[in-house]
Amino acid sequence: MGTLRRVTTLHVPFHQDERLSDRHLAVPAGPAETVEPALPDGTIWERLTALHDAVAQRVANDVRAGVVPTVVSGDCLVALGTVAGVQRAGIDAGIVWFDAHGDVHTLETTTSGYLGGLSLRLILGAHPDLVADPLGLRPLTPDRALLVDARDLDPAEAAYLSADGPARVSVDDLASPDRTREGADDLVLPDGPLVLHVDVDVVDAGELPGLLFPAPHGPSAAAVRKAVQRVLSTGRVVAVDVACPWHPAASDEDAAIRANLIANLLS
């Protein structure tokens, strides 16, 4: 796994502000700590801020100690806490975002109202009063982000990405040995330290059943692993964030398959 050192997995058993059952998340074998703060009464954004603040503090502690934390949660919004934690540790990191979806909606453009669809856009500065400001998160500029795959885009997301959004590449592009070399300007990873975010739904839905938002015609788990390893091999990853938006596992066998998937992506 190159120079990446993972000492403790941080298990965040939440989808938005909802506490998930043990059947939802599949944490790889090995030492793990659960981040499970008591959430206050209030708006969804106040509750999310409390959750993400707890994640940020734990991530910051690991990063300061020279550890590369791996955060495993039930949705992509937890990535705000991961990025904020890296920043609290004094590191201004870019982000590489693997996802079947764009996650670049705003409250004005979302048609479903699903808040996870705003995750990356919030990190890039949308609606700062809702989470970023209370969390102390400094939004990233689009050139500090790379969106990988995003094969299932709504029209508003496609318009944003084509005009003002971060660069977007395919899994195969990122996995190719010559694609991230200096000089391939349209496919270069963001400069400097990186947060690696992987939504498991980037894997083809036919290979990974039970996803909340399945997207067909995606890359295989093997292809995603190759691309993830390409990012890890840079030695610049300071935190890993894994989102698992899926239904509860139907059996112990399904849970083991999920845990193995996460472990194999990062090993």
UniProtKB/TrEMBL annotation:
<keyword id="KW-0378">Hydrolase</keyword>
<keyword id="KW-0464">Manganese</keyword>
<dbReference type="GO" id="GO:0030145">
    <property type="term" value="F:manganese ion binding"/>
</dbReference>
<comment type="similarity">
    <text>Belongs to the arginase family.</text>
</comment>
<dbReference type="GO" id="GO:0004053">
    <property type="term" value="F:arginase activity"/>
</dbReference>
<dbReference type="Pfam" id="PF00491">
    <property type="entry name" value="Arginase"/>
</dbReference>
<dbReference type="InterPro" id="IPR023696">
    <property type="entry name" value="Ureohydrolase_dom_sf"/>
</dbReference>
<keyword id="KW-0479">Metal-binding</keyword>
<dbReference type="InterPro" id="IPR006035">
    <property type="entry name" value="Ureohydrolase"/>
</dbReference>
<protein>
    <submittedName>
        <fullName>Arginase</fullName>
    </submittedName>
</protein>
<dbReference type="GO" id="GO:0005829">
    <property type="term" value="C:cytosol"/>
</dbReference>
